Every structure is written in structure tokens, then in C-alpha cells.
Amino acid sequence: MGHGHGGHGHAGGDRRRLAIALAITLCTAVLGAAGAILTGSLALLADLGHLLTDAGALFAALIASILAARPATDRRTYGMGRAEVLVAALNALTLVAVVVWVAVEGIQRFFQPVEIPGLPLLVIGVLGLLGNIAALIVLSGGDRGNMNMRGAMLHVLGDALGSVGVLAAALVLMTTGWPYADTIASLFIVALILPRAVGLLREASHVLLEGAPKGIDVGAVRAALLAVSGVREVHDLHLWAINDRTPAMSAHLVVDEESELHCGSESVLDRASHALREQFGLQHSTLQVEHGAHVAHEDHCG
């Protein structure tokens, strides 16, 4: 069964983009840390926590991309293809932790407001937003079918929207002096982060728990196999994904003895494998052919 190699160029380009985005994010995080210390802004602290999480996420995504490119071995027969899924799950969990911390701190500040200078907050917010936009431009040219690249873009997009929240808080503080603007901006950032974190965690967990690949209907796969000439029954059908780009499946095909006599079991396998590739993009399929008499014998002995 043939396999394409066009993904290698994508992978190398993605690694370069991740490295550049990581450098930009680290510089933005240093700026945010300085601003948070100088101003005491919770919105900047929330954005900093998100930035540091993003830096860790981008670094982990870079490592996962390198590991995923390693070939399969006798010990790891699928290679390290699932490393990026595991990293995506860890990234989502760390984001949820940041959300909880900022939310608790924000609620406390409603009862104990802190005076925040508006001008430094505005300057740092503008510079942070420019850094976020630069990182997004770099990542947008990557493989959007890759879960890690999508996760990295979501992280940086959340940062960009968070920077907008910081800018809004700075403008309100400068024009009205309202002390709750910074706290509300921090909770706005939290509201942006949480749905994305939960969605990414759900998607990664589905792959790790070997759920059916997204976009492939198990019933449709069963019907396609039953439509293959000579196949009488399909059982023990399983679909899963190595990562978000590599679906796999296995099944037992009960074949008519007359069909096998005339065409051979290999012909049935070829037709079934072709149907799976053409209709569902399933390049990794394991099919076992069984005779009708063999299945009846198993049932009788069981």
C-alpha cells in the first residue's frame, strides 16, 4: 500500500514557524512581566500567565513536531505520532489552570480594588498586541490540519484578544479612572481562554481515548465494506486515530466461499482496501478475511 511523503515539507516549515513564534512570544512575555510588576495590573498578569503558557505550548509543540517525525521502531510501531496529541492535552490543562487562578484573583479584586496607572498599561498593551499579530502571521502559513499548529494559533489568538482587553482597560482608566476596568479586562481574557482550552482538551482526549476519527462515520465504513463484492458480513470493526491527521481501522470480513473460490481472498482484500482509501482516506487499514464456514464453526465451538 503506497504512502505519500508530501508532509515532510509541511513539517519542516511548521517547525520553523513554531520556533519564530516562540521567540516572539518570549519577548512579549518579558515585556508583559515588566509591565505587570510596574503597574500591578491583573489584566497584564492574566495576559502574562497566558503568554507564559503559550511559550510553553509553542516549545512543547516544537518538540512534539520533532518527535512525530521520528520513524517507527519495533518498540513504538507507530513512531511518536501521538506526541503532538499528548502535548495538546497538556497545553489545554495548563490553560484551564491559568483561567482558574485569574478568575479567583479577579473576584478578590472586586472587593479590594487596586489603583492601576493607565498610560504604562496602554503602551505595554500596544506592544504586546503587535507581538501577538506578528506571531499569528508567522503561524498562519503553517499546516492548519495539524492539531498542534491549530492549538498554537488558538493560544496566540487568545493572547491577541487579551491584549485588546488590556488596551480597553487602559483607555477606561485614563479617561475615567474607574478602578474595576482592569479587573473586568482580566475576566474578559479568562472568558476568551476557557472555551478554546476546553475544546482543545476535548479534541485531544477523543484521540487519546481512541474515539472514531473526526469526519469518518463508522456506519458508512461498514456499509462500504458490505458493498464490496464477495463480502457477506463485517464484524470487529474498529476505527481510531494515531493523531488528528492519521486515521486507522481494522475489521474482520466474512467472505462468501463461492466468491473466494472464483476470485481469491486477495482480490476481496484489494477491493475493500481500495474502497477505504478512496471513500474515507483510510491509508492504515488491517483487514482479516474469514470463511462463512469458519465463523459458523467458531459460533458452534463457543
Strand content: 5-15%
Report the CATH superfamily of the largest domain.
Cation efflux protein transmembrane domain
Number of strands: 3
Q: What is the N-to-C order of secondary-structure elements (H for helix, E for strand)? A: HHHHHHHEEHHEH
What integer is the average pLDDT?
81
Q: In the CATH classification, which architecture of the largest domain applies?
A: Up-down Bundle
User: Can you tell me the residue ranges where pLDDT is under 50 for at least 5 consecutive residues?
Assistant: 1-9
The strand order across the widest sheet is 1-2-3
Report, as a whole number of angstroms, the end-to-end distance: 35 Å
CATH topology of the largest domain: Alpha-lytic protease prodomain-like
Largest sheet: 3 strands, mixed
Short description:
The chain is mainly α.
Any overview of this molecule?
With 302 residues, the protein is mostly helical. 70% of the residues lie in helices and 10% in strands. The protein has 2 domains: 7-208, Up-down Bundle (Alpha-lytic protease prodomain-like); 218-301, 2-Layer Sandwich (Alpha-Beta Plaits), CATH 3.30.70. It has a 3-stranded mixed sheet. Helix 1 (7-39) packs antiparallel against helix 4, helix 2 (42-68) packs antiparallel against helix 5 (147-176) and helix 8 crosses helix 9 (265-280). The chain is elongated. The relative contact order is 0.12. Mean pLDDT is 81; it is low at 1-9.
Describe the secondary structure blueprint for this structure.
Blueprint: H1 7-39, H2 42-68, H3 83-111, H4 118-140, H5 147-176, H6 181-208, H7 218-226, E1 231-243, E2 246-255, H8 257-263, H9 265-280, E3 284-291, H10 292-301
Helix pairs in contact: 1-2, 1-4, 2-3, 2-5, 2-6, 3-6, 4-5, 5-6, 8-9
Membrane topology: Multi-pass membrane protein
Domain Cation efflux protein cytoplasmic: 213-291
Keywords: Ion transport, Membrane, Transmembrane, Transmembrane helix, Transport
